[in-house]
């Protein structure tokens, strides 16, 4: 059946997917959410004509928009919102490129390397029974590919943790003047970007997936130690007000 409703393809576990999903919700876009399995995601992306394999991507009117930032720009335009400022763009780019990559590597370097059976249920939680079985059988191979692609390991996890710590200090610094929002007086895509990318560390109850995620032990200790940091308190506050 053909419909004109845009379809957003996501991994449940992905913070970039949460970012795109939140933006579509925020801008009041009607869309269908489709969870995909690792492996299948690349095949669908190729069939749709997306330049890369990564989720999130949005398919609509015979074209595809890939990448959380591009999806937000499309949603902003579609909803007739004021285009984002350069300051928003800078914050979003940095959070995507630095914290986005290293929060993920910090988590997977412990979870996927040492406790892989805790990761699989998050990847497969919204998939059909048949797909769950398929991923279960291929899990060893998928894990190896992910470990190589993201360069995971104990030392890499420590490296990424230090980078995440520094990026939290950057946001702590921005919030030090008591501002409610990162740019200007209103909620913006910079807030969506930072809150969603850091949500794996803040575990806000309003998050559609991480509200039920258990982190591996060393990361759980770090998160407990960081719990009162202004940035992570701010992420929980933004989620409670805007998600
Ligand atoms: N900067 C991109 C990053 C997207 C990304 O890294 N997606 C990951 C999931 S978190 C992915 O699909 N990885 C598998 C692949 O690249 O094939 C965005 O904002 O959308």
Number of domains: 2
* Biggest beta sheet attributes: 4 strands, mixed
Radius of gyration from the alpha-carbon trace, in angstroms: 18 Å
Which residues form runs of ≥5 with pLDDT under 50? none
CATH fold-level assignment of the largest domain: Glutathione S-transferase Yfyf (Class Pi), Chain A, domain 2
CATH architectural label of the largest domain: Up-down Bundle
- Number of H- or I-type helical stretches: 10
Terminal CA distance reads: 31 Å
- Proportion in helices: 55-70%
Strands across the major sheet, in which order? 2-1-3-4
CATH class of the largest domain: Mainly Alpha
Number of strands: 4
**What gross morphology would you assign?**
globular
Q: Order of helices and strands, N to C?
A: EHEHEEHHHHHHHH
Question: What would your notes on this structure say?
Answer:
Helix 1 links the parallel strand 1 (7-10) and strand 2 (32-35). The chain has a 4-stranded mixed sheet, sandwiched between helices. The protein folds into 2 domains: 7-78, Glutaredoxin, CATH 3.40.30; 86-242, Glutathione S-transferase Yfyf (Class Pi), Chain A, domain 2 (Up-down Bundle), CATH 1.20.1050. The mean pLDDT is 95. It is 62% helix and 7% strand. It has 10 helices and 4 strands. It has helices spanning 15-26, 40-48, 68-78, 86-114, 116-124, 129-150, 154-175, 189-202, 217-226, 230-242, and strands at residues 7-10, 32-35, 57-60, 63-66. Glutathione (GSH) is lined by residues 11, 14, 16, 42, 53-56, 67-69, 96.
């Amino acid at each position: 059946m053909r419909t004109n409703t845009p379809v957003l393809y996501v991994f449940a576990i992905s913070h970039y997917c949460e970012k795109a999903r939140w933006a579509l919700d925020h801008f009041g876009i009607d869309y269908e959410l489709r969870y995909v399995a690792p492996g299948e995601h690349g095949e669908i992306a190729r069939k749709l004509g997306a330049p890369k394999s990564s989720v999130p991507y949005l398919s609509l009117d015979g074209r595809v928009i890939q990448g959380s930032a591009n999806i937000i720009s499309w949603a902003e335009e579609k909803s007739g919102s004021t285009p984002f400022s350069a300051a928003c763009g800078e914050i979003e780019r940095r959070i995507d490129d630095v914290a986005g990559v290293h929060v993920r590597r910090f988590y997977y370097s412990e979870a996927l390397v040492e406790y892989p059976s805790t990761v699989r249920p998050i990847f497969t939680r919204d998939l059909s029974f048949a797909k769950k079985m398929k991923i279960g059988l291929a899990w060893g191979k998928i894990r190896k590919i992910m470990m190589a692609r993201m360069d995971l390991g104990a030392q890499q996890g420590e490296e990424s943790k230090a980078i995440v710590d520094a990026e939290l200090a950057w946001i702590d610094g921005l919030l030090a003047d008591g501002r409610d929002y990162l740019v200007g007086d209103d909620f913006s895509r910079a807030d969506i970007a930072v809150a969603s990318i850091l949500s794996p560390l803040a575990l806000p109850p309003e998050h559609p997936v991480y509200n039920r995620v258990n982190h591996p032990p060393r990361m759980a200790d770090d998160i407990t130690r960081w719990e009162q940091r202004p940035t992570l308190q701010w992420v929980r506050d933004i989620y409670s007000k805007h998600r």
